[in-house]
Write a structure and sequence with these properties.
Helix content: under 10%
Number of helices: 0
Shape: globular
Number of strands: 6
Largest sheet: 4 strands, antiparallel
Length: 56
């Protein structure tokens, strides 16, 4: 699990557990990872990559 930290705040988003409000927040990358891009209240974009079996 590779979580990028932005301004001291780590964002976690698991599509299989907590589906995003919009499909654009959850995309599958070419390397079989799932990329989540979240916009915080401070408009800071944080990304979290998690290996998901359903993301082939």
């Amino acid at each position: 699990v590779d979580n990028l930290n932005a301004k001291g705040m780590t964002f976690y988003r698991y599509c299989t557990i907590d589906p995003p409000a919009t499909p654009e927040e959850c995309i599958c990358t070419h390397d079989g990872m799932t990329l989540y891009q979240l916009v915080s209240r401070l408009s800071v974009i944080a990304a979290a990559r998690e290996a998901i079996k359903t993301c082939a």
